[in-house]
User: Which sequence fits this backbone?
């Protein structure tokens, strides 16, 4: 992942912490294709009270007007679902996705 | 009062739900394809409309579901209340969150060309329109500034719809 994309991921995570007080943690989702220019930024967001319906990736086109130059994918899970991901009980559908570093509020 | 559903009603519910899930999948493809924004919004609007039809049909039967597009803003908050519950798979939905969903769905509703809010909202995702000043606008060149489909709002809405549609499609 380029520095510019990583910086954009941090900014997006910060923005999500700010607008939603229920967000507990945000992690990057890493993929073996992270170096590809077209690969979106993927965030795994742990949200208190989130609907528990598994892993539902929601994609977004780049939005330069809002300062987001990259496509993104957001996956929102409850704390219990996050633990299940950690334990391997709730796998990502995409084999190459893994939970990456957490991003600061 | 809940209507007793016939087998035909149940088939309609499943059918609306399956098509709505397919619409959502197409939206995912479109947002990563560099397609104009109107196309992703169009499939989002269609998915929301069919999700509401599935929910209404499940409650009232197919014959009692209105053919109009203009019910999304009323039905979707009810769908949210039904699925954001201990029985539905989540906690109680917060009022502020419900208000955000209601505001977003109102904007999604008027994306359909048939819903122009009494002529005040001619912008839509499908057909060119002429505004009050006589200017003709094209959906693929319009940036839909009134719809706030930023990440947090839309993730919640799509998750809610997918959860409801999964229930209704089986």
Assistant:
């Amino acid at each position: 992942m380029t520095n510019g994309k990583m910086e954009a991921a941090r900014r997006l995570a910060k923005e999500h912490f700010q607008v939603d007080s229920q967000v507990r943690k945000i992690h990057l989702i890493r993929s073996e294709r992270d170096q590809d220019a077209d690969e979106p930024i993927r965030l795994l967001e742990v949200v208190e009270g989130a609907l528990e319906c598994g892993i539902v990736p929601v994609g977004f086109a780049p939005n330069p007007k809002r300062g987001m130059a990259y496509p993104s994918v957001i996956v929102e899970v409850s704390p219990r679902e996050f633990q299940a991901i950690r334990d391997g009980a709730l796998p990502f559908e995409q084999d190459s996705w893994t939970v990456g570093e957490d991003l600061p509020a | 009062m809940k209507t007793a559903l016939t087998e035909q009603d149940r088939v309609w519910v499943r059918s609306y739900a399956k098509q709505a899930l397919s619409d959502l999948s197409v939206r995912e493809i479109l947002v990563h394809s560099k397609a104009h924004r109107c196309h992703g919004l169009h499939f989002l609007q269609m998915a929301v409309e069919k999700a509401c039809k599935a929910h209404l049909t499940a409650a009232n039967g197919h014959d009692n579901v209105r053919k109009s597009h203009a019910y999304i803003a009323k039905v979707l908050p009810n769908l949210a209340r039904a699925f954001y519950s201990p029985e539905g798979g989540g906690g109680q939905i917060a009022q502020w969150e419900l208000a955000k969903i209601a505001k977003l769905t109102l904007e999604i509703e008027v994306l359909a060309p048939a819903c122009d809010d009494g002529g005040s909202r001619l912008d839509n995702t499908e057909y060119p329109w002429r505004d009050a000043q006589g200017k003709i606008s094209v959906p693929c060149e319009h940036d839909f500034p009134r719809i706030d489909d930023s990440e947090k709002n839309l993730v919640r809405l799509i998750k809610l719809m997918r959860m409801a549609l999964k229930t209704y499609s089986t």
